[in-house]
Specification:
Chain lengths: ~350, ~525
């Protein structure tokens, strides 16, 4: 079947709004400039290109934020987002860590995407997404600025996630009034979804309760080339080649994609049967070439007897949740809100 | 004013090319057409342009897809500008990677000719975006904090309450709070975080309450000899001033390209720390160095010494050692607004760079009157027709009308700055660097009227002000960014970060920018351009 670049680009343009197409195509272009064939990454240029926004302790649209250096040793920064309340529309800046007052306050620990190499907690697109989650779920959101590949390979991102989880769990001011416990959810998109899974794994047997995992287009893979990977390669912003590059950049040198970080239900994965694992909401985009791996992940959870809800968004591409200009966006946001709200 | 020459020659012959910059197209009328969703993502593009930009991206993708070139290598070598201006950005990628430039091998997609190889020139949308920025710039308070102990939090509470009392005029409650805070301070960790900076804020509040807002020793007026020493230690102890100098020099160097007679006007010479590096860079430039004149403005020396002259002589010495023809002039003035352009003796044939490191905010003055000092000065800078105006300012909102707002902003700004200082190793310089910062705090908090000179404003405000005064941004590029980042690794500890913001660079501590550097050019009047005829 003839497959010229022209055709690909047109197809792709037809399934997303124009501004989304421009945004994601621009990322795709920029990212190509950053990945070097030898596996190194042009970090300076990446930081130059990344659009960042500062935190703002003055509420905007009912949400305020501030940054906390959670671990000085690793320079681990987290951005905390909180709702401004009706009683206190203008928080006192001395009281940014004022105790939450509601009976139940979900605390969502969010891991941004970027295939382990790109973006930061203060990237504009993720700052926006986190602010939305606050209003949507009446939650406090903690966005983790984890260390990135290739400079920091596995397991750095997971270590940072774990550090953040422990920090959140030990904040008295985040405890819900109902039971004086922190009601924690883990969430992330792309590599962030992968991190959420692995941090939840680490939490098992630790005594820290994770109430739920929200995985948006989570990044998983394996050695095998799946049908979706072959069918969709290069068609909707993403190529198999770039996926391979990012895994090579994150996984320990010499490891292949069946490493358990990449393929948690693969030959080297850990069985979750009989394990107390959080319920999961997994969102899969119909035009995401790695969907077979994401669907396999959902299957893996089911086979292990774990609670999981799959949201398969047929006409969605990667990044559909970045701009609120499509139906998938609103559907998914509703589901997330229900998922988090169901524990109240 | 005496003129100091390092060489015995006279003013020197000027041979060189004329700088012909195409006059930019007239600014488009203010349009509200910016795509709101992309703006929130950090990209400024007009909705009406989306289709066109999409087509260009497709062209780029197709060409890149078909090409065997290693784009990551091309990207490493290229100098790229202003990623927020999406349309211009895509154009520059097209011209960089797809249509190889037809100019000489020295081609750099310079900021003046941004995207000039494509058919249409593009007016940066900065001007159209004023309404969007307006919403975001007012009311911004960025806090980066480490986990505080309870006593630290209590201290912040009390500081805020005290500031509020001061704003209301309830000085008796304020002074009793001062007492309480001084007691609490003894039990708080003063090594880092709020504890460290709280003491200085308590002192400043105290001075405001008990001595009134005339200021006295932390007031505006002239600098003392001590100020220069403190400045020097601040320079050594942390990377902010090094970043300022380095970034400004980069822009100046690029602006001076092709010119044989150049003249730098430095708004605050201090010890002339910025200039040896520029002199060296000029010495090493291909084609040889220009004749460099430096006019350094500074306060009159209190004790009869001519410190400007001394610094000039040292710089001349340095220039001589690297074979750069150099001439220095010192202009002594207590206040920048006392300087008149004729004192600078700018020659119409020379390429001029005006360099302002943390000086423009001093011109803001207490009343937003007509022909305020800032307007006057910006006007005469413009009249000098400089090739470049480099501006570095504290990235803070310390000029808000409400005292409480200023106080709050300052508390977080300076505590972040102190945190960053803490991460730097260099020991002896740190103590005096802290005093330097302390004086700034004192001025922001305990002074008013003309005594309050530390009227820092954020980049977004400076952009509007400078655009309004007839300047347009000369974007700082990926090369400046990279080198600034590398400078940081060389000199400093973990935690500092350089960010790019619509052609400007900021240096900050983690996610909080603390200092912003930008470069500007006067929007040319029709028919004027400096010609240097040999």
């Amino acid at each position: 079947m003839a497959r010229s670049n022209e055709v690909n680009l047109n197809e792709c343009k037809m399934v997303v709004p124009l501004n989304t197409w421009v945004l994601i195509s621009n990322f795709k272009l920029a990212y190509k400039l950053l990945r070097r064939p030898d596996g190194t990454f042009n970090r300076h240029l990446a930081e130059f290109l990344d659009r960042k926004v500062p935190a703002n302790a003055n509420p905007v649209d009912g949400v305020f934020s501030f940054d906390v250096l959670v671990d000085r040793g690793t320079s681990l920064l987290c951005r905390i987002y909180r709702p401004a309340t009706a009683e206190e529309p203008q928080p006192n800046v001395a009281e940014l860590e004022k105790p939450v007052t509601a009976e139940v306050v979900p605390v969502i620990i969010f891991f941004h995407g970027g295939s382990f190499a790109h973006s930061s907690a203060n990237s504009a697109i993720y700052d926006t997404l986190c602010q939305r989650l606050v209003g949507l779920c009446k939650a406090v959101v903690v966005s983790v600025n984890y260390r990135r590949a290739p400079e920091n390979r596995y397991p750095c991102a997971y270590d940072d996630g774990w550090t953040a989880l422990k920090w959140v769990n030990s904040r008295p001011w985040l405890q819900s009034q109902k039971d004086s416990k922190v009601h924690i959810y883990l969430a992330g998109d792309s590599s962030g979804g992968n991190i959420a899974h692995h941090v939840a794994l680490r939490a098992i047997d630790s005594g820290i309760d994770v109430l739920g995992n929200i995985l948006l287009n989570p990044m998983f893979g394996g050695q095998e080339r799946t049908e979706s990977e072959q069918r969709l390669d290069g068609k909707y912003f993403v190529t198999l080649r770039d996926r391979d590059w990012y895994w090579r950049a994150y996984l320990p040198e010499g490891e292949d994609r069946d490493h358990h970080a990449c393929n948690p239900f693969g030959p080297n994965g850990r069985s979750l049967e009989g394990i107390k694992f959080p319920k999961s909401l997994v969102v899969v985009a119909g035009f995401d070439l790695i969907q077979d791996w994401q669907l396999a992940y959902v299957d893996g959870l089911k086979k292990a007897g774990q609670e999981v809800k799959l949201l398969y968004m047929e006409q969605a591409t990667i990044g559909f949740y970045l701009l609120p200009n499509n139906n998938h966006f609103h559907t998914v946001m509703d589901e997330i809100s229900k998922f988090v709200g169901s524990d109240c | 004013m005496p003129l100091y020459d390092s060489a015995s020659s006279s003013a020197g012959s000027c041979s060189g090319s004329s700088s012909s910059s195409k006059p930019p197209p007239p600014p488009l009328p203010l349009q509200q057409d910016i795509d709101g969703l992309l703006a929130v993502a950090g990209y400024k593009i007009r909705s009406s342009e989306l289709q066109q930009v999409a087509q260009r991206i497709e062209r780029l993708e197709t060409a890149m897809g078909n090409s065997p070139a290693d784009f990551s290598q091309l990207a490493s070598d290229a100098i790229l500008y202003n990623p927020s201006d999406l349309a211009a950005w895509v154009d520059s990628l097209l011209s960089e990677f797809v249509q190889p430039p037809t100019c000489s091998s020295e081609f750099i997609p310079g900021p003046v000719n941004n995207g000039s190889t494509t058919a249409e020139s593009h007016t940066p949308p900065v001007q159209q975006n004023i309404t969007y920025e307006q919403r975001t710039l007012d009311n911004q308070l960025t806090v980066v904090t480490a986990t505080e102990e309870d006593s630290g939090i209590r201290l912040v509470h009390m500081l805020m309450t005290c500031a509020e009392c001061v704003q209301r005029g309830d000085f008796s409650l304020a002074s009793s709070l001062i007492n309480d805070m001084q007691g609490l301070l003894a039990r708080v960790n003063t090594v880092c975080g709020i504890g460290k900076v709280a003491g200085h804020f308590i002192d400043a509040l105290s001075r405001r309450i008990f001595r009134g807002i005339g200021g006295g020793s932390v007031g505006g007026g002239g600098y003392a000899f001590e100020s220069e020493i403190l400045y020097h230690h601040f320079y050594e102890a942390c990377p902010y001033l090094k970043f300022a100098h380095f970034t400004a020099n980069q822009a100046i160097l690029e602006a001076f390209d092709g010119h044989d007679c150049v003249h730098v006007v430095d708004f605050n010479l201090m010890h002339g720390l910025q200039w040896p590096a520029l002199i060296q860079a000029l010495a090493l430039r291909p084609g040889g160095p220009p004749l460099l004149r430096l006019t350094g403005i500074g306060p009159p020396s209190p004790d009869g010494r001519d410190s400007l002259r001394e610094i000039g002589l040292r710089l001349a010495e340095w220039a001589r050692s690297v074979n750069v023809r150099f001439a220095f002039r010192g202009v002594a003035a207590s206040r920048l607004e006392d300087v008149k352009p004729w004192m600078l003796q700018v020659n119409p044939k020379e390429a001029v760079a005006v360099n302002s490191i943390m000086q423009l905010h001093r011109l803001l003055g207490p009343d937003p009157v007509r022909n305020s000092p800032i307007e006057t000065v910006l006007n005469w800078i413009k009249d000098l027709n400089p090739k470049i105006l480099t501006v570095v300012e504290q990235e803070a909102n310390h000029n808000q009308p409400s005292f409480l707002d200023r106080f709050t902003e300052a508390l977080y700004y300076y505590s972040t700055m102190f945190d960053s200082l803490e991460a730097c190793r260099v020991q002896p310089e740190k103590a005096l660097a802290e005093i330097y910062i302390q004086k700034e705090i004192g001025n922001v908090v305990s002074c008013e009227g003309s005594a309050r000179v530390e009227r820092h404003e954020p980049l977004a405000k400076w952009r509007r002000r400078l655009s309004g005064a007839g300047f347009r941004p000369s974007p700082l590029g990926s090369n400046a960014f990279k080198q600034a980042s590398m400078l940081l690794t060389l000199f400093s500890a973990e935690g500092y970060s350089v960010e790019e913001s619509e052609g400007c660079l900021t240096l900050g501590w983690h996610s909080r920018p603390l200092i912003a550097a930008s470069a500007w050019q006067a929007v040319a009047e029709a028919g004027s351009s400096a010609a240097c005829v040999g």
